[in-house]
Amino acid sequence: MKSAVDLHAVIMAGGSGTRFWPLSRKRRPKQFLPIVSEKTMIEETYRRIRRIVPGRRVFTIADAPQSRSIRRLLPALPAANVLIEPRARNTAASLILATAHVHRRNPEAVVAVLASDHLILDEPLFLKKLEAAAEAAFRTEGLVTFGVQPTYPATGYGYIQFDQAGGRDFAGEPFYPVRAFREKPTREAAAAFLESGDYAWNSGMFLWRASVFARALERDSPAFFPFWQRTREALDKKSSKTLIRIFEEIPALSIDYALMEKAKGTLVCAGDFGWSDVGAWSALGEIWPRDDQGNARRGDVVAVESRGNIICNPGKLTALIGVENTVIVQAGDVLLVCRKDRDQDVKKVLDLLRGGGKTKHL
Amino acid sequence: MKSAVDLHAVIMAGGSGTRFWPLSRKRRPKQFLPIVSEKTMIEETYRRIRRIVPGRRVFTIADAPQSRSIRRLLPALPAANVLIEPRARNTAASLILATAHVHRRNPEAVVAVLASDHLILDEPLFLKKLEAAAEAAFRTEGLVTFGVQPTYPATGYGYIQFDQAGGRDFAGEPFYPVRAFREKPTREAAAAFLESGDYAWNSGMFLWRASVFARALERDSPAFFPFWQRTREALDKKSSKTLIRIFEEIPALSIDYALMEKAKGTLVCAGDFGWSDVGAWSALGEIWPRDDQGNARRGDVVAVESRGNIICNPGKLTALIGVENTVIVQAGDVLLVCRKDRDQDVKKVLDLLRGGGKTKHL
Prior knowledge:
The structure is a homodimer. By secondary structure, chain A is an alpha/beta fold.
């Protein structure tokens, strides 16, 4: 039986992380790079969602230069669906704008908010769960989210505490009531979360009925609800000037902080479909094909007693001798060599470059 | 007072080592690379010796393709002085040919045999000692060599055992009688040599009067003396066909093995002028300028908690994070990353490339 849900997707494409430098640069963030496959991550995201959502119901949201990249990479996407943030104001503003677009089409439509730069290994399971989550969002008065079972006490993710007892099925999948959203924890808190068993990583993927989103803002986020109302009206009046003014005034907060942490009746579903946010170079050690010494690589590699490295040097030869657990990336005019457990410190290099006026490498 | 010695220099330029791969390649060995300074090592060698030897008395010896490189790099050198080995037959054959050329000009001329790819830090002292050694070669019936005070129990050099008691001065420098030449020792033997104090590293630089060289071959190297006679005659007859035949028949042995180990009356002088054969990448850690974390480098480097590295990536930026004691070389289509104490294993990479048919990278 075909679902009655009018499912729309919003692909968040506005990120500008630096963690894949020097492959990613200021004007070419991770979602526009072929990090995981031969295609860029946003192309993979679009291809995946298109299996269950027609193109006219897929939106992207990003700033103007990024939107030009999106138009080039996703030529099949209707131009009107490439939503442009008039100003960079974090995810609450972006999702108010995108949801308002969907609301204008159909207040009872369900919006699936997707990151443009995440990896999903088990695509059929993901799509099945996404349809179930859409059903949950359509049938209830709550927001819906995906939580990922933690495998280590990560301090780089937010956590979702949920109630294992009160599960409820939609389309054959169990959904649990959310007790609380927790921001990125300390190492100790993360260890306790892992131990307790009723915390999941916040995947950053959400679903909501447009009308439910509006009501949740009205009830739980009084600071943002007026911006929702003004945005919704601006769309009816097709006033881009008003939109600019709204984006100048709206607080630059994440949707987690602006709404998810405050909303009541939110449900969480297990995101056990091989999810990864591919947060930094070291993540590719588990994703790229590996040689028999555990070296994950792009490009030709000759390794003499070298193990556990991640090499990105496509089209060239990389020779390793006695090198272990090292990230090696050649991109354009920059070579990065970084101990695998220090890949978070790429930003220190960027700070040094900025300080030294070497901005052309950023 | 000007010396009476008619000093000639022979620059041995025929080597084809692989230890600076991937900067050095099959057709571009170390002597033709600007490893130590902005100029190639053979240009530095020529410039240095020209301070005391006029160009018409400087010879090079190498194979035909290498000789083309020499002509290009040393345009001031008379074409007739660029001697070509008809076949690659190791250093005994080359030095018989080169010394025969000098002998034809003047049997009492002194030949200084120089490597084309060694570093000498204290150039004035080197030239002073070289003139003293030329004096010793001119005044005695012996061969003369430079020995370098060992600083560690190296197994990669030959050793010269000498008699500290029997020193004799020439031009104010002491020369000691050589007791024996020892080939590359085991680690244990090298430690004993270092301990004893009467062993020096064989620098591979030699001096001899042409007529003394001929008599030493006649007396101590009966296998090679006939080749000397035939070579000397072939030069008088200008018969390149005969030279080719000689090079086809002559044993491919080093001059150390063919003559130095057997000759009597050899003298050694202390080569304490900052000599290095720049044997592999790690040697550059002591030679190239270093940043305050001890990273020796060519090219722009940004280092975050990274120490003791050697980076060759000219014209580009290299960023290091948590990397220590590693050699990093970007050259053409190849990137080498190698633990500093494993730089001798570059040949293992080349063996793997040869085995895999990837000969374009050699």
